[in-house]
Amino acid sequence: MSFDPTRHLLLTPQDDEAPARVARLRALGIGDSPLPAFDEFARKLARTTRAPYSMVNFIDERRQYFAGLYTPAQDQAVELGPAPASAQPGRAMDRDHGYCPHVIVRRKALVLEDVCDYPRFAGNPVVDEIGIRSYLGAPLIDRTGMALGTVCVVDLEPRPWGREGLETIKSMAAELVEQIHQMEQRQSEVS
User: Fold this and answer.
1) CB contact set of 173 (below 8 Å; sequence gap of 6+)
2) Were both Cys, which of 87, 96, 145, 166 would link to 83 (CB 3.0–4.6 Å)?
3) How far apart are CA 149 and CA 166, in angstroms?
4) What are phi and psi for residue 124, nearest 5 degrees?
C-alpha cells in the first residue's frame, strides 16, 4: 500500500492480483489500447448515469489505462493529472490517482457522493489536480473470477448517486463483462 506520511492514511491498496490480471488482459487482447466498443460503452454509461465523465478502466501494477473514455466537451480522451503543456490528451493515469484501484482490490462497487466527506479518499490527487468531487464505480469480474478492471463515472460536483446509482453501475459492469466474454468467444472461434 502507498503511505503518505504527511496524512498518515493508507492511500492506495496493495494489489496482489495485478500480475495475474495483466496476463489475463493480454490473453484477452484488451487493457492497453483504446477500443471503439469500450469508448461507445463509456458514452452509454455517461448517458445512463447523466455523468460528465465515464471510463472503462484497466489497472496494472503502476498505472490505470482508460480503454474506454467519455468526456463531455470534445467526446475524446483527456489528460488526467499534471502534464506538460505540449502533451496530447491521454488515457493513462498513475495507479495512486483515483478510486478504481480501491474498487478492484475490494472487488465491490464504490459510491462516493462527495469524496470530501471521506478522509481516506479526500486526499487523493484527483481531488486537487482535477477537481473530482463524486465517484461511482464497479469492478469487472470475469468468468474466471478475475477482477479485470472497472467501469466508473465521475463528476466535478457532489452527486447523490444513491441506491439507484449503485444498482446502475453494477448492472452496467455486468453488461460489459458479458461483452468481454463474447469478444473472448469470438477470438477462440477464429483461432
Assistant:
1) 109, 138, 139, 140, 141, 150, 151
2) 87
3) 17
4) -65, 140
Rounded distance between C-alpha atoms, residue 12 and residue 20, angstroms: 19
> What number of CA atoms fall less than 13 Å from residue 102's CA on the CB side?
19
pLDDT tens column, 133-163: 999 999 999 999 999 999 999 999 999 999 9
C-alpha cell at 3: 503511505
Name which of 143, 150, 169, 138 is nearest 31 in CA terms. 150
Q: How far is CA 4 from CA 9, 124, 144, in A?
A: 6, 10, 34
Q: What are the pLDDT digits (tens) for 164-178?
A: 999 999 999 999 999
Instruction: Compute the distance between CA of residue 7 and CA of residue 4 in angstroms, rounded to an integer.
Output: 6
Three-state SS for the chain is: CCEECCCCEECCCCCCCHHHHHHHHHHHCCCCCCCHHHHHHHHHHHHHHCCCEEEEEEECCCEEEEEEEECCCCCCCCCCCCCCCCCCCCCEEECCCCCHHHHHHHCCCEEECCHHHCHHHHCCHHHHHHCCCEEEEEEEECCCCCEEEEEEEEECCCCCCHHHHHHHHHHHHHHHHHHHHHHHHHHHHHC
User: pLDDT > 70: what percent of the chain?
Assistant: 85
**Residue 25: HSE in the Cβ half-sphere, 13 Å Cα cutoff:** 24
pTM of this structure: 0.85
